[in-house]
Design goal:
heterodimer; A: 60 residues; mainly alpha; 0% strand; B: 454 residues; 15 helices; 62% helix
Chain lengths: 60, 454
């Protein structure tokens, strides 16, 4: 019988974006200081993680 | 007979953009449909997050990239195989891009942290990764490709030869014509790509790896010394090649012959199963209705038509995509008409059929036939099918006297070849749950969808 399963892509994308949001929030509150040098790899990591999750989910 | 395709909507409820009803790319419209929310609310959320931090536009562009548009995939005219290939290509592209982005993120992090890494390592690494990925992809291929190739060869007489021979003969001939059929053994492309495309992809991969080595040696100043070493290595390689070439040729030839024999054996089993399901069943019906010349003539005509179609290599059914529920319904109707036994079909979920799916339907038809023949007096036969994300399952249940599967004589091929053997040849499995003495029989057919219909 069919069991409801979480959408892995949306789960990963949500978690990664939430983590990104937390980092931005910490920057906003002054807990950490973000620069372009630290934002760029983070942005690449977000896009890479979502693309990887999408590809692995779609693959049959 | 009752058919209840209750779950088709469930299998098709993947997230899709809806550009037709959208304002930009249909992301909000598609998401709204999926979540059953007014798209206007989602648009407001995207606009607010865009104005507040810019994240909304990033999320929108990501969704635009990742979520396919409604109707973007090939539909009715395309086969399930084409759909799966398109999905796998897109998946491979996304995995490649994702890994690339993550590698760039790591490199940028190293640079930001001041960890020592130089271009002498970075660029050769990038070239080696790209070339290695190309070679790896081509040499490993996709799971199930070899099985699909066997199916192509053994599926039908004349399928590869335009009706002039057999699939096995064609495969053997191909192996002979090319000298040694080593390419499929080394570079399994699943038979879906042209030979020049395969060779050019391998060539590009090898070139990239060699370029990486040269770049690394050039940057580190070791190119001159490496040239001498390469020359010596080449001389040794040529000498070894001359010595071992006959052994490699013999190995490749024997592997090629073994592959041809495997294909031939599969084809024999397919032919036997088909003859059992069609000709032998018709002959049994002819004996049963010997007192009705018109019925016998009709049966003979139908069998002749079916056999001619099969021998010519044309599909037995009309061109176009067949779906599991409809195919089971058609098979049940056919058995009902031939044996006068009611068959109730219930299908939960539905998928288009590929070769493995067609084999599942053929095995289910054989199980229905057995149930109609041996348990028809005990009431209606029940067929339950479920198409899930991971597997297709069909159960054929009757309330007849039951039987002991281990006591079936060796010369009876119905259960052994047309059901169990057929399912195994197509990557599935079949189990017979029978209780001798009136407990009825249930035939369970399972086809994993890792290499099956999408």
């Amino acid at each position: 019988m069919r069991h409801a399963r979480p959408d892995r892509l949306l789960l990963v994308a949500g978690c990664v974006l939430a983590a990104f949001g937390v980092v931005l929030l910490l920057d906003r509150t002054g807990a950490i200081e973000l620069s372009f040098g630290s934002m760029a790899p983070m942005a690449f990591a977000v896009v890479g993680a979502v693309l990887l999750a999408s590809g692995l989910t779609r693959r049959e | 007979m009752a058919v209840t395709p209750t779950g088709r909507a469930a299998t098709l409820r993947e997230l899709r953009r809806d550009p037709g009803n959208g304002m930009v790319a249909g992301v909000c419209a598609g998401l709204g449909q999926r979540l059953d929310i007014d798209p206007l609310l989602l648009r407001i959320v995207f606009a607010a997050t865009t104005l507040a931090s810019g994240l909304g536009i990033v999320a929108y562009v990501l969704a635009w990239m990742l979520v396919p548009a409604e109707g973007a995939e090939p539909k009715a005219a395309a086969s399930a195989e084409a759909l799966r290939t398109a999905r796998n290509r897109r998946a491979a592209l996304e995995v490649g891009l994702g890994v690339g982005c993550l590698v760039v993120a790591v490199l940028l992090t190293f640079r930001e942290a001041g960890l020592p890494f130089s271009d002498a390592l970075t660029w050769p690494f990038v070239l080696v990764a790209a070339g290695g990925a190309l070679i790896w992809r081509q040499s490993v291929g996709r799971p199930g490709a070899a099985r699909a190739e066997l199916h192509d060869a053994a599926g039908r007489p004349g399928a590869r030869t335009g009706g002039t021979g057999t699939g096995a003969a064609a495969a053997a001939a191909a192996g002979t014509a090319t000298g040694i059929a080593t390419a499929p053994l080394l570079f399994d492309d699943g038979g879906t790509e042209s030979r020049p495309a395969v060779i050019s992809r391998i060539g590009i991969g090898v070139t990239l790896v060699i370029a990486a080595a040269i770049v690394f040696l050039q940057i580190t100043g070791a190119l001159a010394a490496a040239t001498d070493v390469a020359l010596a290595a080449m001389v040794v390689a040529i000498a070894l090649g001359v010595i071992f070439a006959p052994f490699f040729v013999r190995l490749a030839t024997s592997l090629s012959l073994e592959r041809a024999e495997r294909i031939r054996s599969q084809e024999r089993a397919e032919v036997a199963a088909h003859l059992h399901d069609s000709v032998l069943q018709t002959l049994a019906l002819v004996q049963k209705r010997a007192d009705d010349p018109r019925a016998v003539a009709a049966l003979a005509r139908r069998q002749e038509r079916e056999l001619r179609t099969w021998l010519s290599g044309a599909p037995a059914h009309a061109e176009g995509e067949r779906w599991l529920a409809a195919a089971l319904q058609a098979a049940a109707q056919e058995v009902e008409e031939a044996h006068g036994v009611a068959i109730d079909v219930v299908a939960v979920g539905d998928v288009p059929l590929d070769r493995d799916g067609e084999a599942l339907v053929a095995a289910a038809r054989e199980a229905m036939l057995n149930a109609a023949k041996f348990a028809g007096d005990a009431g209606a036969v029940a067929v339950y099918a479920e198409a899930g994300d991971e597997r297709l399952e069909v159960f054929v249940r009757d309330r007849g006297p039951g039987f002991d599967p281990t006591a079936v004589p060796a010369d009876r091929r119905g259960v052994r070849e047309s059901i169990v053997g057929r399912m195994e040849r197509h990557g599935g499995r079949a189990a017979i749950h029978a209780a001798p003495g009136g407990g009825g029989t249930e035939v369970e057919l399972v086809l994993e969808r890792g290499g099956a219909a999408s």
